[in-house]
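Troubleshooting entry. The earlier prediction with nicotinamide-adenine-dinucleotide gave an output that would not parse, so I re-checked the input for stray whitespace and re-submitted. Clean input:
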Amino acid sequence: MTTTTDWRTQAARLTFRNGVYIDGQFREAAKGGRFETVNPANAQVLTDVARGTAEDIDAAVASARRAFNDGRWSGKSPAERKEVLLRLAALIRENIPELALLETLDVGKPISDSSTIDAPGSAHFFQWHAEAIDKLYDEIAPTGRGDLALIRRVPLGVIGAVVPWNFPLDMATWKLAPALATGNSVVLKPAEQSPLSALMLAELASEAGLPDGVLNVVPGFGEDAGRALGLHADVDALVFTGSTKVGKFFMTYAGQSNMKQVWLETGGKSPSLVFADADLDKAAEMAAFGILFNSGEVCSANSRLLVHRSVQEEFTQKVIAATSAWPLGDPLDPATRMGPLVEKAHADRVADYIEIGRSEARLAHGGTRETRDGSDCYIQPTIFNEVAPDARIAREEIFGPVLAITPFDSDEEALRIANDSEYGLAASVWTKDLSRALSVSDRLNAGTVSVNTVDALSAMTPFGGMKQSGFGRDLSIHSFDKYCALKTVWVKY
Ligand code: NAD
């Protein structure tokens, strides 16, 4: 097994790619600006990165447009595109330790996750979309003799992709894999907290044979590079994962510019419904996973636990016990399951919510913020009990390891509380009664309902939200829909 010392040694040898990647090359930002990216585990600066602005977005979009128009990628057959993307998947696999380290250093994610989930996941998602793309058939309408009407899927053109910091590599991959498989060109703007893995990914894509200009990466801040991409008149679609607030900005940018398509994967406040007949041990173990995996920095985190009153106290104790399987610590230690939060400003925000929680509900566990190795981004698993459904900690996305437990007395009440949210990303249902599981699932407003598990997810199934959790789906065959237009061609004969 790779030890903490091994990971530290490898980390010390890393060189960071830190330019703007346009036309297959790293360059300085047009205005020469740079910004620091910080390791939240020890508050040390990792490197400084070129700070892309509107000028760099213009250059990247122009490069993507040239590449799209001359057909160097869009003109290739799906089978040819598949080969390149399969090579990219293989290169990601060969580079899992380096990609995992970049992810861990940049955002504080435990190396045990980044090396087994995030980096291998990126390879898997590229491979899945690559393998699917030459198995999709277009359609012929049932017109009768003398007419032939072809219904074809065509790539949209230039895609702008703006992604968050919680799963930097995988959120980028969820956009890039279907966008590139369908023949589009892309300009990707990673989050300012986490630009490093996307820059390495761009280099690997070129090495795999992706022609220059097809994938451009512009690191930079949301309010300048992100906004410029959202407002750009030559971007055909903008795909976004991030907060609901910023998602709404992108709808406005589209309205103010060229009415580009906008697809949004945004926030969540996902409920887990635990009925009295559930396997309480399993449900408690998974409730801890649902709020502590990735330190709760998960859009579909099960941050609201709705529990039947008859088992509330027993179940709460089981969840508290289950948190002991989630040691907080140095993210380069393979035994660590929870690292620091991504940055000081975010840890401050989560700590503020814990204070709000103390005034709204009963603190049942945790609630402490710790300073380790010079960083105060470490927050212990925190559980509030007796949380009223209208409490702020039950309604607002905290995006940290903070769980709100609310009791219910009937199935109807559980459903009413679960659906009384501006969000609708995911939900879990715990019961041994199949009929209850299915009827409750039918009535939950959520893009994914997991029965007797939490956050079930696969490349084969669509992922996305309802209500203000967004619209459009990542993953699965349906993810291709966002990156294609349907074109009808009529032929008289
Ligand atoms: P964020 O919305 O602050 O930032 C996301 C991206 O938008 C970043 O690249 C950022 O630079 C950019 N951005 C910020 N302000 C902008 C502006 N004014 N104009 C244009 N671009 C701008 O989100 P975050 O804090 O990075 O990520 C956390 C959020 O992401 C949470 O709300 C979480 O629920 C959500 N998320 C959703 C999913 C999903 O699939 N639904 C997945 C992961 C994260």
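This one parsed fine. Residues 162-166, 171, 189, 191-192, 221-223, 226-227, 230, 241-243, 246, 249, 265-268, 299, 397, 399, 425, 465, 469-470 surround nicotinamide-adenine-dinucleotide (CB under 6 Å).
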